[in-house]
Amino acid sequence: MNKQAGLSILLVVLILGSIVGMSIGARPDVDTTYQDFEEDLNIPSEMYVGETEAIVSEMFSELIIASNTDVFEQTKIENDLIAIEGVKRSSIQFNKDSEEKIILIAKIVIDPLLQEEIITEINNLEYLTSEPIEIYKQARVEINNSVNFRATSDENKTMDYDFVDYIVDAVVNVNTLKKDNIQGQLQASFKGEVLEYVILYETTNLTSSPSLVFDEQEINILEWNEKYRYSTKTNYLNDNDENSIKEKINEIEKVTIVPDYSLVYQGLDINVSKEDLNISEIESIDKNIEEIKISFIADYNLSNYTEIKEKLIENGFLEENKVKDFEKKYLLESSVEIENIIEKITPLDLELEEIEKEAILDVEKITLQEEEYTYSEKTYPVWLEYPEDINKEIINFNVQAYVTRKDIMFLMLDKKIEE
Question: 215 and 364 share a domain?
């Protein structure tokens, strides 16, 4: 369960003392199980909060449950929790949230192999009324940096504290794992400048958070499918549809029509922006040393093209400088290689640009930025040039992937253009 830090989480931390123990995480070479405050009896304890990154050093087989409830029989609740398969021990306590509603805090020791099933059963307890019920795990984390704390009673009152190899009790997401890098909020009690106790609760798991990774990678071809795609282009006024093309070329099984509503001009020395033209159908104007490209919105329907063309001419976009007009691309797919394809598409006013064949790539394991990731889909279909690529076993791709931990959630491959 992925929870953001909020009031209920903060409340869990504030009352965890009797559940996880508010003992200070100590340096390995310093015994801080007891600190003598006799000289500072008149110094009050004060609560502070701060944010830090930490590495999970130890996970415990214990879940912490926080929920509003309308049942207050402690024995009944404990017995219900113990009755869940995989729950070994339970202890509970009640408190009130900021709205004076009763909140139940429960700690249960579980069989970690049954964690998912146990969480399902907890969510089925009708008298736990929070939506959602908040469930966390107990852990210990290592902190190695300086943390800026601010007093809960006065945000302008701050204090820096250096943590060096500190092991701190923590409340983390149930899916957090040992060695994860997490972001968390520290709840600490200071007596003057002396740290009495501290606890951390996780707000973000930096290890499992999805991230976008780019790389270039050689990928193996597993096999070739008997699927061919013929990429053609034509004038934007071409009114052939899928049915008319299939009638004239029997081998065609699928037709995809892709409008390319962009104009390209060369040899113009003008500086006109999209705002200057004030044509709502224009999406962008891109200019470089050699040419100017005007791109139109994806759902442009051509109804006022003549009017737009006249306005472009008025602003210096002359027809004699236009090297590309509106086009349509027809992608024709077939399960057989079509003989004499050019002869067959010419009567349809289609011009062949390229032929591709579908390859199946092996993407179960991909190394990106020197880290190996696993992709559950295992294979990836891609159109490759035919016949140029047909004898290749490996193809170089530009790779984009959303990854979490060591898994690929989303993968996009684009064949790298050979220079």
Answer: yes
